[in-house]
Amino acid sequence: MDPTVLGAVIGVGGGVVGAVVTGVFTASSAVRAVRQQAREQRMEGLWQMRRDAYAALLTSIERTRAAIRRLEGAALASAPGAAEWAGGVAAARDAVEVAQAEMMHQGTIFRISVTALEADSAESLVSVVNGVVSDMDVWVAALGDELDHARELRRHALSHLSGLPQTLEHFMECSKGYLQHVPGPPPPGPSVGQRWRSWVLHRRLRAMDE
Q: Using one digit for the tens of pLDDT, what is the confidence trace for 146-175?
């Protein structure tokens, strides 16, 4: 074959190979970009899910605390012997039960949305709130029966109830460390182009060494 023709054929062949390699690199970069974006979107979605879980749990706890306060008000609204006392207390206690059930439900959702450490912290907080509800029940029952130690039981229950805002504040302060940091996606591995350049450099270094 004529050398000129042969050179042209080789040149065309080299151009085709180069185009194929470039196309592979371009496609690989596009795939990497899509995967990187998918990872970032996934991490953002997980962070949003955790944020929503925190918001829902704290809202349900605050509603339960408000319902407990209304129960206290209903218990003190009139004398235990009055006809309206039992009905007012029963209605307020039903509201506490509804709020408490929602709090427990949100606690379950929270547990599957966060880390084990966060879940344990939230479970402790919910346990404190449930303990206050139990204290209030004991006091209200004693008040209804007009027992002598009802005042002492009330002091005990309200002491725990008044400590709830500080407990909530501590929980929220600890939560900020989880919510203010959005973990980034894991670093991707080397691309096809990077591996190709590393292989070429390795070959050149070996050739120089020989």
A: 888 988 998 998 888 888 888 888 888 877
* Per-state percent for the chain, helix, strand, coil, to nearest 5: 85, 0, 15
Residue 146 CA to residue 152 CA, distance in Å, equals 12
Closest Cα to residue 158, out of 125, 133, 123? 133
Q: DSSP letters of 85-143?
A: HHHHHHHHHHHHHHHHHHHHHHHHHHHTTS-HHHHHHHHHHHHHHHHHHHHHHHHHHHH
The token pair that represents 3 in the structure block: 């050398």
- Quick: pLDDT tens for 112-156: 888 888 888 899 899 999 999 999 999 999 999 888 898 899 899
Give CA–CA dist 25/196, Å, rounded. 9
What's the predicted TM-score (pTM) here? 0.65
Asked if 71 and 92 count as a contact pair (C-beta separation under 8 A), the reply is: yes
Taking only Cα atoms into account, the Rg of the chain, rounded to an integer number of angstroms, comes to 34
